[in-house]
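FYI - complex with flavin-adenine dinucleotide, inputs then prediction.
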Amino acid sequence: MNDASQVYDVVVIGGGPAGLTAAIALAETGAKTALLARRAPYADNRTTALLGASTDLLERLGVWPRCSDHAAALQTMRLVDDTGRLIRAPEVRFDAHEIGIDQFGFNIDNRSLVAALEQRAAELTGLTRLDDEADEIHPEDATVSVRTKQGNLLTTRLVVGADGRHSLSREAAGIDVHRRDLRQSALTFNIAHTRPHKNISTEFHTPQGPCVFVPLAGNRCSVVWVRASKEAERLMALGDEELSEAAEKQSHSIFGRVQVEPGRHLFPLGIERPSQFGKDRVALVGESAHVVPPIGAQGLNMGLRDAADIADIVGQALSRGEDPGSPAVLARYQSARRSDVTSRIFAIDVANRSLLSDFLPMQSARAIGMHLMGSIGPLRRLAMREGLAPSWRRVS
Ligand SMILES: Cc1cc2nc3c(=O)[nH]c(=O)nc-3n(C[C@H](O)[C@H](O)[C@H](O)COP(=O)(O)OP(=O)(O)OC[C@H]3O[C@@H](n4cnc5c(N)ncnc54)[C@H](O)[C@@H]3O)c2cc1C
């Protein structure tokens, strides 16, 4: 198929959770949208802790009812200092009821989430799906031309680059990216256990990074275990029984007997921040726009806010007869996303550095911060609300 005669308002490139959500939200505004993404089963066993506003967005888009059965509510978040250092922070508990909500959000396996997004995308008549990949992207004055691997040519007024860490869209727009390798890796796997998790997500802070046990439906948790890269590789190579024992020890047996389930993955961690979120008729969403380590469950939650914002901004532009790829529209997107993404990358970076630091004053500052958060109600409630979504975009 050669689609050069047809000019789309938007072509979304990349069919991960951020790209699928952006494509659905854009098509729902009435924008003539194409999604250029390979249809492939989701490849790893990761789960995502989706915070309140994210599940609200998925509900509005008709996605959440298709996968909520697979999700577990996150009612309490518990931070435990497991550094074994002289100066240790007290345990801090964040309880959703304290800020008047039943849960902070839900933990769901990415396979179920992506399958629900795919189902919803397939229903939308205003969304053209191309099971292909972008090979070349050329921004021009009035449009962008996208040549696919199968040789088709698409013409669009705006490209939404949801093509992940090695984004071709970002490169085509000439957007620089600042990268830092953290020399830490996250090992992910799921466990079954004998004691109930009571919908409490527990984060053990170790000197090599956090180890988080996030509730899944039933007596199961997903585990994200951040270690120095070499140590993470060692854990990855353990047999099931040895890894079960190691996870039980790391959890201080709070879940009783632990048994790891088949399937584990290792993710080298880094921080990536582009110099701009949009340029030359290309807007970036998801990991093409920000990569953060899995601390505080922020990555995809930010990606879903990118998707919601680009859809709102493009929808409003089209209703006023504006060109959705114009510099003015991209400037609005840039201003909508910059503070949220920059402030969260900063906070996650500081939290990670403070954990790894051998510098005594840094350790004391961290312990004092945690102590204040644990003991001063208004501060704790502020941290909980800010963790869910930036204050300037919350509707009460
Ligand atoms: C261990 C771990 C735990 C995490 N836990 C959480 C959590 O609890 N909560 C949270 O909010 N976030 C979490 N995150 C972050 C979250 O997983 C990511 O933000 C999210 O998966 C990124 O989705 P994406 O759609 O932007 O990118 P991806 O899922 O990488 O999708 C990009 C897609 O683009 C496709 N693509 C690439 N190039 C092209 C091309 N040229 N043409 C067409 N398609 C292309 C790729 O094939 C891929 O399908 C975690 C991350 C890690 C590593």
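The chain has a mean pLDDT of 91. The pocket of flavin-adenine dinucleotide is lined by residues 13-19, 36-37, 46, 48-49, 133-134, 162-164, 168, 186, 188, 224, 267, 286-287, 294, 297-301, 303 (CB under 6 Å).
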